[in-house]
Structures are given as structure tokens and as C-alpha cells.
Amino acid sequence: MVKxxxxxxxxxxxxxxxxxxxxxxxxxxxxxxxxxxEHPTVIMLGDTDxxxxxxxxxxxxxxxxxxxxxxxxxxxxWGADVLCAPCNSAHYFIEQFAAELTAPLINITDxxxxxxxxxxxxxxxxxxxxGTLRSGLYQKKAAERGFALYDPLPLAGEWAEESLRYIKSxxxxxxxxxxxxxxxxxxxxxxxxxxxxxxxLPLAYGAAQxxxxxxxxxxxxxxRACLRELYTCEKRACGLFFLFEMRHDxxxxxxxxxx
Length: 259
Description:
The protein is α/β, with parallel strands linked by helices. Helix content is 45%, strand content 16%.
């Protein structure tokens, strides 16, 4: 039997708001819960005043790191035992101070790459903001794992960026159209899955109605990783933890708890 372990999840949201809202929805969908009380306790701070992460990474904006650190400290003060941030580019700054926080932080890049390697051992395309792509945030870790991660073709990268802008403005239809164009261009070049290394890209991917098996959602990977920290298995044979695997039934990813 899987049961929540009493830990409180602290979520730093607002980067962007639609992605944070979708992250909370995924926590509810994936949680092994049948009643309100069986769902995890979550505290979210939606700080939409944080400076633009991608602009800062490209040297064109203010450093959001100090404000992020203050926000995480607030979440800890409010009772968070485990931390996360559903934003990939934010981790460029978070990794500079994460070890100094008094609560553990689940790193979105680590858990996304782990799922990507499991889904497609032969590699995957990388899609994200220009800041994330140019920073090498994913590429360096993929190389350490021996995992092939391919930068997008220039035109596909531009379409993905355009898709992100449409998500931020609430135009999901155009966001889906642009991401579909990017995906089909990349798949014609190399038929491997996409790593959606921006938490707004899964929203566009869903709007495009593209197959789940052809992409790894960083947003879903983070939600699954957080749930593994918030639940334990009561049976002694489980060793107080559980494994998961991704399954794509009815175009949805599910967590499977192995007891």
C-alpha cells in the first residue's frame, strides 16, 4: 500500500503561471489518492515578479537568483520539507545555491534526463528557451550520463520559441500549431523523441495533440519525482520506496506503484 509520508512540498511557481498551474494539476492526477486527505500537502509561492530567466542567462536582464533564494527560504519557513521549481531555465540560477538551502530540492533537469534516457536510450532532441539551450544546462548533464542530446535545427528552435510566446499570451491553438511544425521538422531529420525542456512546451505539445510517446515532458517528470518523495510504501518488502514506470494508455502518462 502506498501512503503519503507527511512531507510538505514547497513549489516556487510563476515561471510561467500556466506551467505552474499545470504542474499542480499533474500532482493531483498522478497522486495515488482516492480522497482529498490522501493527496499531498502543497505550498506554492507564485512569484511572477521574478526577473526573466532566459534574458538573464543571455546577459540581457537582472539576475533572478537572489530573489529565488529568498522565495525558497519563505517556503521553508512556511513549512516546506521538499522544494521544487517547475521552470527549467530557473535551475541555471538555482544550482548556484541549492546546496545551501535547508530543505532538499528536486532538480527538474536531473529527473527529466532520467526519464528521457529510459524512454529513448539512443537519444533525443532538446527543445527549450534560448537561455536554456545556450547555457548548456542540459547538454552538460546529458554528456555526463553518456546520453545523446541533439540541439534543434535553427528553424525548429525558432518555432518552439514562438510557441512559448503564444502560451504566455494564452493562445494555445497557435502555440500547438507552431510546436507541431517544429516537431515534424525534427522528426524528419532524426526520428527520436523530444525533450520538452521548458515547462510551457508540454502545454503546446498537448494543444498540438502530438503522441505522448514521442516526447518527455519536464513538467510531468518533475511531478512524478515529487510524488516519489511524498509517498512511501507501507509493505516492508518495498524498502520504504517505490519504483515507477511510464505508460501511455489513452494518451496519458500514469505512475505505476510496484508493491
